[in-house]
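User: Here's a structure from my thesis project, written as structure tokens. My advisor, Dr. K., wants to see whether a designed sequence matches the one we expressed. Can you design one independently, without my sequence as a hint?
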């Protein structure tokens, strides 16, 4: 009997998946969210749990790709114009947060007895929050598009940019020749600018034609591969020049935010992002050194409390200073008080440069992980307070909930029918998102000024990325009856709260749509045919009131015949087709 062969990493994969499947539902059930579940699962299977993974750093590099893909997806949702609107939050509030928090935490570190060099690295490193952790929390709660969510994201984005000068600071503090340092930094700055410029140029002018070519080939697998290539390729380029990989992926996402393919790209990337983000948090949990925390528990507890309180108070105060309401400022404060994953990078670099002692770096890393674990408790506590205030009816200091997105319409199929239907909505200022799966039709529509995205009506993940969850109404204006039927079943399951309006190709199709329970259906030529008939009667000399009577009667008989056909089949009510509209003299007299 042949010996069974187990593929590499097979057992490890089973263990990781099992730990996640057990831990995540439990933490979500008690209101702590999926992130804490992944962290707890990592602790359980790591060196200080059952000890299955003794070298978590071996998989950390792979798991960090989850952060890269997360920032790529976030970038897809932020058009450059919208990013420009956020510049005050990014460069104003974000810079103030890093500098002021870094200064305060540096002073606190010096009170712990650290030298000013070590305290400076510790303070500025701890001033950075966790992009992966905070954005995952905001997405889980559906708060990323809110005012406070966007403000928190602006701060996180500046922090991602700040890692570059902070790493340069480590090089300056490290003992080396000053002239060599100056030259090295100057070269690095030029290289960074060139790399960022290339990513922006490629995203702006090269990627959309590439995706158009791949779409024409008809292979969804190619689109997925291309999306991963763009996200990881731009991240790799930024990493080569010393920037954050996540920042590179974010830039490429922003450049594709105005592309017609953004929603499909987001849907294709999402499964990979979700799995890798979970793996990232599990790896962070594995790296929590419990024996080090026990040996230094007093220092660790004080550091955790000081860090979260100091950052929380400063975030609240700065957010208020930059125009946030009290409730939004509080939400920012409880979302970003933790240390971040980029602190690990800074501490490791400082340790390699012989500035930061290894034991101190390990304690600081443990503090960062513990603050990640504790952050959801603050968010849950704030939600609890808000709910209690709501029940008491206290409106004076009530935590304001974020505003729901304005009503919007999702139009699927942007041919002649979809374009004409959209004009009524656009003319009233209704938010319209249009999807089509024909690249040439999308290109033609864009020539007339329409913004149309590539997407498949039968893929709920694409419709979700396009805003299906927030859509008040979904209009199916596609031409293929079978595709429409499949789309209706998917939409009813995925978006039960959205009204469903459908274009019917003919009478038989209208009957099918009625049986499927759509909210409204109309035959594509019905209204235009009645208008045509009205004009013909006008030319023949009939008075307007008689034409109104005829149209009303035809509509009435059509509705009655549809009801009869639903019950008795296609030929039911056929005798009604040739009936004449009664005149006043033909109508029975009404009794006195």
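Assistant: Designed independently from the structure alone:
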């Amino acid at each position: 009997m042949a010996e069974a062969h187990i593929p590499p990493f097979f057992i490890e994969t089973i263990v990781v998946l099992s730990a996640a499947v057990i831990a995540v539902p439990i933490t979500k059930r008690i209101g702590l969210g999926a992130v804490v579940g992944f962290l707890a699962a990592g602790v359980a299977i790591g060196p200080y749990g059952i000890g299955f993974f003794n070298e978590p750093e071996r998989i950390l590099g792979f798991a960090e790709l989850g952060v890269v893909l997360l920032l790529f997806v976030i970038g897809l949702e932020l058009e450059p114009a919208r990013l420009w609107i956020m510049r005050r939050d990014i460069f104003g509030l974000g810079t103030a947060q890093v500098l002021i928090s870094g200064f305060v935490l540096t002073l606190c570190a010096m009170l712990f007895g650290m030298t000013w060099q070590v305290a400076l690295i510790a303070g500025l490193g701890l001033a950075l929050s966790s992009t992966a952790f905070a954005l995952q929390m905001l997405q889980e709660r559906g708060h990323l598009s809110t005012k406070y969510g966007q403000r928190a994201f602006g701060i996180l984005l500046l922090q991602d940019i700040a890692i570059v000068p902070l790493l340069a600071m480590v090089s300056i503090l490290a003992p080396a020749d000053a002239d060599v340092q100056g030259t090295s930094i100057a070269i690095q700055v030029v290289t960074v600018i060139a790399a960022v410029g290339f990513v922006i140029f490629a995203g702006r002018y090269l990627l959309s034609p590439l995706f158009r070519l791949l779409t024409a080939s008809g292979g969804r697998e190619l689109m997925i591969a291309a999306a991963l290539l763009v996200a990881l390729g731009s991240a790799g380029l930024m990493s080569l020049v010393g920037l954050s990989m996540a920042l590179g992926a974010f830039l490429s996402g922003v450049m594709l935010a105005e592309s017609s393919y953004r929603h499909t790209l987001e849907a294709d990337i999402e499964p990979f992002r979700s799995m890798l983000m979970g793996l990232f948090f599990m790896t962070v949990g594995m790296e929590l050194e419990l024996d080090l925390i026990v040996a230094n528990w007093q220092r660790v507890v004080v550091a955790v409390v000081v860090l979260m309180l100091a950052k929380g108070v400063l975030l609240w105060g700065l957010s208020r200073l930059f125009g946030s309401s009290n409730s939004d400022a509080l939400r920012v404060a409880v979302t970003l008080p933790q240390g971040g994953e980029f602190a690990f990078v800074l501490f490791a670099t400082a340790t390699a440069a012989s500035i930061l002692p290894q034991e101190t770096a390990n304690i600081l890393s443990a503090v960062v992980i513990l603050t990640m674990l504790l952050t959801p408790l603050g968010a849950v506590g704030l939600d609890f307070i808000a709910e209690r205030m709501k029940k008491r009816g206290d409106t004076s200091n009530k935590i304001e909930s974020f505003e729901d997105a304005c009503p919007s319409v999702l139009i699927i199929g942007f041919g002649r029918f979809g374009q004409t239907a959209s004009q009524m909505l656009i003319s009233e200022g209704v938010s319209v998102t249009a999807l089509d799966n024909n690249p040439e039709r999308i290109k033609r529509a864009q020539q007339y000024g329409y913004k149309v995205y590539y997407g498949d009506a039968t893929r709920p993940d694409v419709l979700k990325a396009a805003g299906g969850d927030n859509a008040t109404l979904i209009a199916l204006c596609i031409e293929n009856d079978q595709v429409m039927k499949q789309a209706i079943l998917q939409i009813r399951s995925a978006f039960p709260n959205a009204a469903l309006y459908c274009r019917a190709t003919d009478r038989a199709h209208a009957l099918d749509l009625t049986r499927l329970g759509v909210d409204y259906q109309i035959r594509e030529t019905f209204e235009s045919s009645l208008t045509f008939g009205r004009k013909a009667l006008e030319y023949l000399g009939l008075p307007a009131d008689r034409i109104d009577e005829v149209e009303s009667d035809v509509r009435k008989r059509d509705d009655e015949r549809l009801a009869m056909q639903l019950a008795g089949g296609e030929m039911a009510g056929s005798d009604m087709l040739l009936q004449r509209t009664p005149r006043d003299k033909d109508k029975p007299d009404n009794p006195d």
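When you compare it with your expressed construct, this may help: Residues 358-392 form the longest helix (35 residues).
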